[in-house]
Write a structure and sequence with these properties.
- With 425 residues, the chain is α/β, with parallel strands linked by helices.
- It has two domains: 190 residues, Phosphoglycerate kinase, N-terminal domain (Rossmann fold, 3-Layer(aba) Sandwich); 205 residues, Phosphoglycerate kinase, N-terminal domain (Rossmann fold, 3-Layer(aba) Sandwich).
- The protein is 36% helix and 14% strand.
- The chain contains 17 helices and 15 strands.
- The strands form three sheets. The chain has a six-stranded parallel sheet.
- A hairpin with an 8-residue loop joins strand 10 and strand 11.
- Helix 1 packs across helix 9, helix 11 packs across helix 12 and helix 13 runs parallel beside helix 14.
- The longest helix is centred in the middle third of the chain and has 15 residues.
- The protein starts with a helix and ends in a 5-residue tail after the last helix.
Amino acid sequence: MIRAPVRAVTAAVRQLSSGAGGKLGLEGLASKVDLSTARVLIRLDLNVPLSKDDGTTITDDTRLRAVVPTMNFLKAQGASVVIATHIGRPKGEPDPAFSVQPVLGRLSELLDTDVRRADDCVGDDVKNMCTNMPQGGVTLLENVRFHKGETKNDKAFAEALARSSGANAYVNDAFGTAHRAHASTEGVVKFIDGPAAGGVLMEKELVYIKGAIDDPKRPLTAILGGAKVSTKIPVIESMLDKCDHILIGGGMIFTFYKAQGFDVGGSLIEEDMIPMARDLLAKAEAKGVKMLLPRDVVVADKFSADAEFKMVGVDGIPENWLGLDIGPQSAKEFSDVVKNSSTVVWNGPMGVFEFDNFAKGTFAVANALGDNTNAITIIGGGDSVAAVEKAGLAAKMSHISTGGGASLELLEGKVLPGVAALDDA
């Protein structure tokens, strides 16, 4: 059964002829250019994980499946499509280990189309291949990061990418790279003589995440975990002006504990962040935001799956022991808050969930999210997604973001370069 809030947001996605956040969407694109005769350059995120054994076997095709709705829309309209993407982090030069070749077969299957691969992403050969592509065809360009100009957003490379594709329209459906001002996400738009729009995935990400922070159904709760306070400070500060509750977990809790005067044993702390942690707690109190830290933690004698471990209160962490998870009392308290929330944004695990003995806090929160069928639940990329999938609860979440860094910056209220480059609706 579809939950009411989710149904409302899904309807909003379908109505995005004017695009999310005031930006052009696919329906808007179709109204501005005849896609049946158009060639579209589309930026996708096909950076799938590959087997460490052979480096060519896809171990998770989630990102490939995520682009199918946009590609099917363009296919139904009769558009010819040129795909720009990246794999891994090559050092600005060709490297077979980061070729797009491994995704070619699976992408062709998902699109039910014989996708052709170019040997490069710019140049005369690429231009000839794209120009001679049959209408309705799909060409996959080689890794754009094989050129240093990609990550530097080099003007000459961006222009070469546009000219080589021969495109007269642009679509960005790579939310996971939208926070980077790269040539294929931002610079290229300036050199395409035609409209620039967001794809289905991009629109969905913006609708869910921006909706959660701009016009949330309350109470709004943010769950923030992970190892370091320093990576989450901008988000915490931003959410203090928006949230009713902020639940803090993961390794960064120990910097907060240190700021409160507790001994943290051998747990991870950021000494230079202690004043900031103290300041954030004071700001939360002044604003009337309930910022909850765990009351108890699971500590271990070493960082290992087979470590000796025990539950202790925050004032009882033994010397040299490491805090690796929130405790059962805290997991229950966090779960109770989640169950009574109407919108929940989660970014960062509660503990070292890769080790079974220290996964209980993370899974307790995940189960609470899954059980709250009346809430909009948004999982913000990275380890949080991995935890939800490991718990087998992905299908119960309203939205699972494809971009960890991009979702964080959107939560902070930042303008994403890849979104700003798109045409206004």
